[in-house]
Design goal:
mainly alpha; 11 helices; 81% helix
Length: 273
């Protein structure tokens, strides 16, 4: 796939983000319409590029980190598009697209820079289960972060009594808290299942011994444990509102470090992925 195609898709997503932001601030229905069209067109092109790549190499999305990231950015945009079509929650698109754009750009810029892909002997059902649940968990965490950011912004406007157009257009704190809790729960469950699938995969290919020396494995367990701690505090009613929302945003930074650890500290089983 041509690099120019990847850039055009990125520019389409970015232009869509600008249109959604313009509509939220200035309430321009024309901008919203253009934003929806750009989002769908870019999503369609993104999906076609994935189909072309997978048709050439069926194991493409599981062979490299960048290609998997390219897939998960598509799934995130697809989730946003479905949520907007089903519930009319265009605010999710606006607050989630910056994270999606970052993941997409990282995927495109790192394509073709890895070493050899995984050998055919390493591919099994557990690898697909592992990667599928991990990326599904990431999608849930991105949605949770979007809700958390909106919650923090709404709380700040309430405390400062600066009630502008954004305050009117965004959902209530109760709605955001409910969505935040739901997406955080989904993300934690899927991410945990992904780690469990990875352990079964490592056992199947007899790599359990070296697995524990992998920094990405350690960081994944740490990230998962912290997310469950945040979720536990939310469930126990010991902490609610801004502190839980802020915790979700901060832990997402740890998740990002976990994802990039094998790229910038290439040691262990996940080296280059």
């Amino acid at each position: 796939m041509s690099f120019a195609v990847y850039i055009l898709i990125f520019l389409g997503y970015f232009a869509s983000f600008v249109c959604y932001g313009f509509d939220l601030v200035f309430e321009e229905e024309g901008a919203l319409l253009y934003g929806k069209r750009l989002l769908f067109s870019s999503l369609l092109a993104h999906g076609v590029s994935l189909v072309v790549s997978v048709s050439r190499e069926p194991r493409w999305v599981a062979a490299y980190f960048s290609e998997s990231l390219y897939l998960v950015s598509f799934l995130l945009v697809l989730l946003l598009w479905i949520l907007e079509r089903r519930f009319g929650v265009r605010f999710f698109v606006l607050f989630s697209l910056p994270v999606v754009l970052l993941l997409y750009l990282l995927a495109v810029l790192s394509m073709g820079r890895q070493g050899d892909s995984l050998g055919s002997a390493l591919f099994s059902k557990w690898l697909w289960i592992h990667t599928g649940f991990i990326w599904g968990g990431l999608a849930g965490f991105v949605a949770a972060v979007s809700c958390a950011l909106m919650y923090l912004f709404q709380s700040w406007q309430l405390k400062s009594k600066r009630w502008g157009k954004l305050f009117v257009n965004l959902p209530s704190l109760q709605t955001l808290d409910r969505f935040h809790f739901a997406f955080l729960s989904i993300g934690a469950i899927l991410f945990s299942l992904g780690i469990l699938g990875g352990l079964f995969w490592a056992k199947e290919i007899k790599e359990m011994g070296g697995l524990w020396r992998d920094p990405k494995v350690f960081l994944s367990f740490l990230t998962c444990a912290v997310y469950w701690s945040v979720l536990g505090l939310r469930l126990s009613s010991l902490r609610r509102g801004q502190k839980i929302a802020a915790g979700t945003v901060l832990v997402f930074g740890l998740l990002f470090v976990t994802l990039m650890s094998s790229t910038y500290a290439p040691s262990g089983f996940h080296a280059g992925f």
